[in-house]
Records
---
Amino acid sequence: MADHPQGLRALHQAFDDARFGPARTLNLRNALPTVREATARTEAWLRERQASRAGDLLVITGRGNQSDGGVSPVREAVVRLFASLRRRGVIASAVEHTPGSFVVTPAPLSALREAARRRREPAAAPAADPETLRALDPATRLLLRQTAQRALEVLGVKDPAHFLEREMVAQFSLVAAGVPDGPDRETRLRAALAALLQDYNDR
């Protein structure tokens, strides 16, 4: 009987491994980060997974059994971060899975722009300007233009051409935040923009 709880935990671990796998699991418990490191890493990871339309995700914070008072400061900080990311359109939900983990559902990429318009939190500094966009590959720029135009149509803007360049900058800034630097970044940017355009077209 003494082995039963341990065997049950192993079974739950096996189910989680099968459901999420390493690509959709962020294990903060094993990394032992500081609170600041944990929140920065969690936000960057969730933004990247949102851009790649990864599906449901598992974030493991640990229960805090070894922490003062038995409460994990990392867990508490990540819970607060989830609330902020919901307001900013990064995640749709975060539900406690176990006392030390959460199942997180990313929001559609189009939710980023909607959240920015609501201005419930201070807007982040733009990650791009018109000059930056001109440096993009023509295929990326065309896809960005199509995405911005469709976003303006969804909003019911009467004269989308007048606002197109500004909307391209805004859409690119939001998408680029979830696509980290790397040799294939432009390919990943196009994939994220294609997913965003599909979000708008599905409306």
---
Amino acid sequence: MSVANVTVQTSFYWPGQPGGDFLAGYTAPLIQFIETRITGLTPNPIVLTNYFSQMYRPEHHNFGEEFIFEPRLEPGLPPSVLNELNAANIQLLYVRWLGGANAVFSLLGLDDKFRALQ
């Protein structure tokens, strides 16, 4: 997913698809994140692997998804990346994936204000 020179590459596990009558109304939940790599927010890439720094919500039948990536909750985040986030007024990144190449990115600043990336 990319918007305005910011790219998010995330990988995670979904459970296996159920069979039978459940398949028609199935929305897969996230089992576990593997890793998220964010480039373009700061000069250095941000890599998240921690449970608390990556959040997920599936939309109906997984036709869309919402993510929140909060680097400050990542243990071992290099101080240089934290300084870069502070300088850029970034608390977290919100991504709503709408299917295909369509995604909406928003940033929550340290000032508690959202701003869209376009």
